[in-house]
Structure formats: C-alpha cells, structure tokens
UniProtKB/TrEMBL annotation:
<feature type="domain" description="DNA methylase adenine-specific">
    <location>
        <begin position="133"/>
        <end position="479"/>
    </location>
</feature>
<dbReference type="GO" id="GO:0009007">
    <property type="term" value="F:site-specific DNA-methyltransferase (adenine-specific) activity"/>
</dbReference>
<keyword id="KW-0540">Nuclease</keyword>
<dbReference type="InterPro" id="IPR000055">
    <property type="entry name" value="Restrct_endonuc_typeI_TRD"/>
</dbReference>
<keyword id="KW-0680">Restriction system</keyword>
<dbReference type="InterPro" id="IPR051537">
    <property type="entry name" value="DNA_Adenine_Mtase"/>
</dbReference>
<dbReference type="GO" id="GO:0004519">
    <property type="term" value="F:endonuclease activity"/>
</dbReference>
<dbReference type="Pfam" id="PF02384">
    <property type="entry name" value="N6_Mtase"/>
</dbReference>
<dbReference type="GO" id="GO:0008170">
    <property type="term" value="F:N-methyltransferase activity"/>
</dbReference>
<feature type="domain" description="Type I restriction modification DNA specificity">
    <location>
        <begin position="664"/>
        <end position="818"/>
    </location>
</feature>
<comment type="similarity">
    <text>Belongs to the N(4)/N(6)-methyltransferase family.</text>
</comment>
<dbReference type="Pfam" id="PF01420">
    <property type="entry name" value="Methylase_S"/>
</dbReference>
<keyword id="KW-0489">Methyltransferase</keyword>
<feature type="domain" description="Type I restriction modification DNA specificity">
    <location>
        <begin position="481"/>
        <end position="646"/>
    </location>
</feature>
<keyword id="KW-0808">Transferase</keyword>
<keyword id="KW-0238">DNA-binding</keyword>
<keyword id="KW-0949">S-adenosyl-L-methionine</keyword>
C-alpha cells in the first residue's frame, strides 16, 4: 500500500506545478524527469560513498549533477538555466544508459519561473532512491492522477481489475507476455509481480489476500501488493528470460517514456517497450506470444484507422482491429484477457459480427465477463466487458461461459470508494474451477445465479453471434394462475419520432401535445408537453398515442411508463401500447402491470451510450391476463390504495410549520445575533476519519443523507470547520438553497463544506426554534426575495444576515418546538403510510404475476 508521506510529497509536487503546468499529463512528465534525474545523482553518491566512482555525472557532464543545482551561489535564473540545459542534454550523455536516454528524449522545461522551479525541486529533493516496491507504487499513484486521454479513448485501467485479470489468466515464468497498447505498463508490471509472487518462498496461496478482494483505499489510489515478493525461487536464467519475455507496444512516445520508468521502478531494469503502431505497422506482425493482457483504446480517429492488409477482419474501428490482432498473435496454446467496449459485444455492423463469429467458431473465445458501467470513473462511465480467450481450452468445449460483475468492491462514483459488495473473488473462483474442470475433462455445474454456459450453436443461431449473456438467460416462467399472453397479441404498438426543428410549420402556433421521456416522472405521471402542429403529425415521424394507451420508455432512460390521460404525440424514445380489444383487457389493468414490463425493458436494454429495446422485443414480452371482471377487481383494489397514498402525500408535500407571530415579540435581524460562516474547501485527494458534509448531503426536508458519504483527513486548516451539536447548516446555492438542518453528533468528527453556511446561536434563540422558523412560510417569503442568481440560485452570507426573525421568550420557543415536533411526528406517520400502501400495490401486482 502506498505510504502517506510519499503520496503527500507527490501531491505537493503537483500542486506546485499546477499554476504553470495545468495539464496533468505534463505534470506527470515533469515529475518523472526530475525523479530520474535525482535518482541518478543518488546512485552516483552511493557509489562514491562505497569507494567507487561516479557513473552518470562525470567528465563534461559533472556540472549537471543534481546536487550542483542547489549550489547557494546559483540565483533563481541560474538554477533555471542549469536545470533546463541539463535535461535537454541528458539524452546525449554517453555515461547514461540507453533506458535513461530514452526517458529524457525531447524533455524540456515548459516554464521559466524561478520560484516555481525552486519549490518544485526542493520537493523532489525529499525523495530518496531506494530500488524498492515503495517507489514503484509511488510512481504508479502518480500515473493514476493523469486525466483520461479521451480523444484516443484511453482510460487508466483500475489496478484491482488488472490484478483480477492477471490472477485468472495466470502467466508463467517461461511464457511470453505482451500488451499491444501498453500505456503505462500496468498489465505488464502486474504480470511480472504475479510471477515473482508465485516463485517466492514467502508466498502462501492459502493465506494470500488478493488485491481485488480486500481494499481499503479508493480505487483510484489502489496500488500493487506490498509484500516484498522477490522471486527467490527463480534462477538467474529465469530472471533474464522473464525480463525479455515481457513486451509492450504503444503508439505514444510519452506513454513509452512513462512505462519505461514505471517498469524500471518496479524492478525490470531493461524493459522491452517499443514505440510502435500495432494497427498500421507490419514490422512485428510475425511475432507470437503465449499471453496477451490489454485494455486497448476504445475510440477511433475521425475517418477511422487505416490498417495494413494482413488483418483477417476488414475494419477501420480500433477496438475490432485490436481484438483481431490479439487473436491472430497467440501461440497455439495462448490465452488472452482484453477489456472491450459494448460495441464488440453486440454491435450489428459487419466487422463486429465477423469478429465475433471468428472468436466463437475458430475456438478463441471461452468466456465473457460483463463489467459494471462506471468502472472507469472518474474518467468515463463507459460500459465494458472482458473477453477471455484460451486456444487450448476453447477446443475442449462447445460452450461459452458468461459471467457478470455487478459490484467490484467500490462504488461507481467519481471517487470510487470501497464498499462491502464485491463479486470479483467469487467470479475468479468460478473461472479457476471451470478451467480445472475442462483440463480434467470433468462436468462443470453452474447455477444460473452464478453465470451461464451457452452452447456456441445457440450463439450462432441468428448469425449475430451476440455476446450479451443476458439474452441467453432463460426467461423466468410466470407462475400466475391466469392466462399468459404476449403484448403483441393484445396490443398494437406505436413508435414515435421528433418533428424537425428546422421546419417552422411543425412547431409554430402548435396546438397538439407532444411528449418525450423528460415529461414522464418516476411516478408515471405526464408532467408537461411541448406543442406541435397537426401538420407535424401528418408529415413527420411522430405518431399519436391515443388516450388510454400505456406509454413505455424504450430508449435512453428506460424503465418508466405512463398512462396517457389524453391524446398526445410521442417521440422516438417512447412506444405506446394500444389495447386492441377492450373486452379482453382493460386499459388501466395494462398500465398497472406495466411496472413489470418496464423492469423487463430495463434489464434487457442494449446499446452504446443510447440503450434500448426493439419493438419486436417489446411485442414478445409476456404478461398475465385475468378475466375482465378480475381485472376490474384488481384495478378497484389498487385505486383504493392509491387514494390513501395521494391523501397522505398531500400532507407530506404541503406541510409547513406555522408560527403565529405576536406583535409584542422582538424582531431581530439574523446578522445582529449570529455571524454566518462559510465552510471548508476540500482539495485533498485522500480519505480520512472526518465526515465531510456537502450541500448534496442535505435533503430537501433538511435531513442528513447517509448515501455515499465523503470522508477527509482533519488538518490545521479544516479543524475550525468542525461541527458541534446544534450547529445549524444552511444550503447557500442550487436547488436546495435556504434549506436548513441541525447537526447532531454522529460518532465521528464532521466538517462542513464551503457551499454551506453555519449558524451558531449563543443567545436569544434556541437553535431548534430557528430550524422550525426556517420551515415556515414567513421565512421563505423573505428567502425568496433575497436570493440572487438565475439558473443557480445563490443565498449567501450577506443575504441570510437580512432575514428578520420573530423572537418569542424562551418558554414560548420551547412550546413552538414541542408543537412542531408533534406535527412532524404525524407527517412522518403519513410518510410511513405511503410506504405501506405502495408496498401493498407492489404485492398485489406481484400476486397477479404469481410472485
């Protein structure tokens, strides 16, 4: 695990550079160059201390020794001149090995500010060269802070995902290992460490904790296992062969430079990393390897790739070409794990289908592991899967294994903080057991909840070779005692469209409602509409969903339905289910069971970016169909529950405490009795033990939300923002502006964020009374007048100081608090009533379905 001191130094070095070098990738390059420069001087000093000679900085290059940059006689600009000249000439220093010369090739100093350079070099000077895992992990952390290279579709692969893939592919000491788009060499380093670990005396596979199974740091800070495995069981020949067997290519010289440093610091002193365009160059086409591990670029440049003619699949898409390359460059018993975007899994294009056919029919593919969307956060929310090739095992089975990772041990937010749910260890064990069963020619039994084994013939049936495991999952049989019908049997399906905005005749003076998914809320209500002309209905792609139809969102924000209370035109993301015969199915019954239809649509939606289901799929969904009189009884029962919910919701939504203001009470400005304080701006990238309360942690009703809490480390800067019991917090911006909450002690120190205002009342006002007052209409009439800003309302400290507060005597404040607490208890009872009767509706629908 990365030690906090080293991590803090790296963060400090980046903070120093950020004003002059805003690009994170350039920051990493500057730190990389400086570290290697410093380490070469450290090695020279160590050699001298042991009675030897300097190696790197001697002769004409002695004047560039790191320690000479800090000569007190050097002024600021002297330091800049010497340092800039040194890194510029390092690649022609004959005393420096080729590896280091490659690192310094084209290096330069991008700024000329003496104070920035002096501060930066002082921070770098604190690092000491120890050829240890600690420095390698520190550099890996440095690489993790680089922004994604979005134009090239490159995203840092999370370390725990890399180690999961390496662990299950299990590279051996005598095998060649390659990554054809190696980036910073994460897969290669993990493979190297895997082999060292498995050839170390202190390795016990029974007690070893897998990196992907046990984590406490956030996913973006996860680094390699720190157990100091040295591979003492490897012979000198093994070690030489191992270093030569680990091969990486990358098209970017910057990535090559970073991967060289990364591998060097992880113990590979002569790394085989080449600047090479895997897709357009033929120079290395005839090289074959035993193991390929990769997460190649997802995106193709405008106009596509222009590959050479040796690819078996003709395509201009990088993801297709990389996968094809990997398949073609495995040895006869070779194996691969590669991360691919969803297009490779199910896109209908000819190249995609040809690739999938090749992988299935020619015995490359043995398994597909679906990964959750958001696994590449904070860089991208793209949905991906892992393709698993094994040329030896694929010949021993006529099936493909499908597995799905729902949780990988981290939440899917930007910080990717650890959570308890983690499917990776279980899935790794399934893969290992399956491999062993195939090797031993034994039957392998897999429960459907664990995964699927699908015959290759079934995958090939329609010629699509779709690799989405969900489509092969056996449909859960409806256990209902009622007749089961397909939607297409009882309904006509109407798909919509959007009239062209360029055609004024479709929109000007429109009088007919037109809806898209944005007008359908989570409760199934149509909350609004745009107006189009009758001409748009006749001449554009939009269609009319008649009153009484059930509207299903079948694209983009799938998973919701609505009941059409009026005739309305619909856009392309919606499909209307129109009952064919009202003597067979009641329109309101169809809508009531549409929550189940929506769940099926959501579970089966496919697509890249825009997900959805086809009209044909929707037609085939089955629903229970009771006799008409039973349908009417079900409708009546559910409507009676809904009336109770609606009544309770009226109370919950409209309750506001009322304070009957006595003219005798003192009226005071808040600013006269309390000093509003803004909160803490957190710039730290690490987690800690103090709860960091943000504006998003306060609900619209002024309660603390416990979902995805953030934690930070307390420091001298943040301690003055620590909260105490009965501190009042007020949101000062956004949709929740003016909302207040009273902080209660929660077992850990808590710090409030900068978009919150703290009010601490030491006299005149009971904090709970202020909170009651802040729910009243009298307060909101003032707040709404004082707020500033347009789309983003601002309720700042100066505004809140102007709030006039009626201040009754202390005993009256207590009575008001007591009364409101009693009223709130009744409101909360209504909230509970809503929960109970919503569950009754769910239970009723489930009973119709037979669940």
């Amino acid at each position: 695990m990365l030690d906090s001191t080293t991590k803090r130094r790296i963060d400090s070095a980046r903070d120093i550079l950020v004003g002059k070098v805003p690009d994170p990738k350039s920051q990493v390059e500057q730190i990389t160059i400086a570290l290697i420069y410093k380490f070469m001087d450290d090695m020279d000093n160590e050699s001298e201390e042991l009675g030897g000679e300097r190696t790197f900085f001697k002769g004409d290059f002695e004047k560039y020794a790191w320690h000479k940059i800090f000569d007190p006689q050097n002024g600021g600009f002297d330091m800049i001149s010497l340092y800039a000249e040194a890194i510029d000439k390092m690649d022609i220093n004959p005393n420096v090995p080729q590896l280091f010369r490659d690192i310094f090739k084209n290096a330069y100093l991008p700024y000329r500010d003496p104070e920035t350079l002096r501060s930066f070099l002082k921070e770098i000077n604190k690092f000491e060269y120890e050829h240890s895992e600690r420095l390698g992990d520190a550099f890996e952390y440095l690489l993790s802070v680089m922004s994604s290279q979005g134009d090239a579709g490159q995203f840092r692969t999370p370390r725990h995902i890399i180690d999961f893939m390496v662990d299950v592919i299990d590279p051996q000491k005598n095998e060649s290992i390659m990554d054809p788009a190696c980036g910073t060499a994460g897969f290669l380093i993990s493979s190297y460490k895997h082999i060292l670990k498995n050839n170390s005396s202190n390795f016990n596979p029974e007690t070893e904790e897998k990196l992907y199974a046990n984590q406490h740091a956030s996913a973006t800070e996860t680094v390699v296992n720190g157990k100091q495995y040295r591979g003492d069981k490897l012979t000198p020949d093994d070690k030489v062969r191992l270093a030569r067997n680990i091969i990486g290519y990358d098209i970017s010289p910057d990535m090559v430079r970073l991967s060289l440093v990364n591998m060097y610091l992880h113990g590979i002193t002569e790394p085989y990393i080449s600047e090479y365009d895997t897709l357009t160059s033929e120079d290395k086409w005839n090289e074959y390897v035993d193991v390929i591990l990769a997460n190649p670029p997802f995106m193709s440049p405008k106009g596509g790739i222009k590959p050479h003619s040796k690819f078996s699949i003709q395509s201009k898409r990088s993801e297709v070409l990389f996968v094809d390359y990997m398949a073609d460059h495995l040895t006869p018993n070779g194996r691969t794990m590669v991360i691919v975007p969803e297009g490779v899994i199910f896109q209908a294009g000819t190249a995609y289908k040809s690739l999938r056919k090749k992988l299935v029919e020619e015995n490359y593919l043995i398994g597909v592991i679906s990964l959750p969307s958001g696994i590449f956060n904070p860089y991208s929310g793209v949905k991906t899967s892992i393709l698993w090739f094994d040329r030896s095992l694929a010949k021993k089975t006529d099936k493909i294994l499908f597995l799905k990772v729902e949780n990988d041990g981290f939440d899917l937010g930007a910080q990717r903080r650890p959570i308890k749910l983690n499917d990776l260890p279980g899935i790794a064990q399934i893969i290992k057991s399956y491999k062993q069963a195939l090797i031993e020619d034994k039957e392998f039994i897999l429960e459907e909840k664990e995964g699927l084994l699908v015959e290759k013939a079934k995958i090939a049936e329609d010629g699509e070779y779709n690799l989405n495991g969900g489509r092969y999952r056996s449909k859960a049989k409806i256990q209902s005692s009622f007749k089961i019908v397909e939607i297409g049997e009882i309904c006509s399906l109407i798909s919509g469209g959007t009239p062209s905005k360029k055609e004024s005749k479709f929109w000007e003076n429109g009088d007919f409602p037109w809806i898209s998914s944005k007008f359908i809320d989570d409760k199934g209500n149509i909350t609004g509409f745009d107006l189009i002309t009758r001409c748009a209905i006749d001449e554009s792609s939009t269609k009319v969903a008649p009153k009484g139809s059930t509207v299903v969102i079948t694209r983009v924000s799938v998973g919701k339905t609505a009941f059409a209370q009026f005739d309305c035109a619909i856009n392309q993301d919606l499909t209307a289910l129109v009952v064919k015969d009202k003597n067979v199915i009641h329109e309101e019954y169809l809508y009531l069971v549409s929550s189940k239809i929506a769940s099926i649509v959501e579970a089966n939606a496919e697509g890249i970016g825009v997900k959805g289901v086809t009209r044909k799929f929707l037609e085939k969904i089955q629903i229970p169909l009771p006799p008409l009189n039973i349908q009417e009884e079900i409708i009546e029962e559910i409507q009676s529950y809904q009336k109770i919910i609606d009544g309770a919701r009226q109370i919950v939504d409209n309750y506001k405490p009322t304070i009957n203001i006595d003219p005798e009470w003192e009226m005071v400005k808040l600013g006269d009795i309390c000093k509003p304080e803004y909160g803490y701006t957190d710039t730290a990238k690490d987690s800690g033990d103090a709860r960091f309360i943000r504006i998003t942690d306060i609900s619209s009703t002024g309660e603390l939300i416990e979902v995805n809490p953030k934690f930070i480390s307390l420091s001298a800067d943040s301690e003055k923002y620590v909260l105490y019991k009965n501190d009042v917090l007020v949101a000062r911006t956004g949709a929740t502006f003016g909302k207040s909450m009273i902080f209660q002690e929660c077992g850990t120190p808590s710090v409030f964020a900068s978009f919150l205002i703290r009010l601490r009342f030491e006299k005149l006002i009971n904090p709970k009374y202020y909170w009651v007052f802040a729910q009243s209409q009298y307060y909101w009439d003032q707040a709404n007048r004082l707020v500033t800003g347009g789309g983003q309302p601002q309720f700042n400290g100066n505004a809140i100081k102007q709030i006039i507060i009626p201040v009754p005597p202390a005993e009256i404040q207590e009575k008001i608090i007591s009364q409101v607490v009693e009223e709130l208890a009744l409101v909360n009872q209504n909230k509970r009533l809503i929960e109970i009767f919503e569950q009754k509706i769910t239970d009723k629908i489930n009973s119709v379905w037979g669940n």
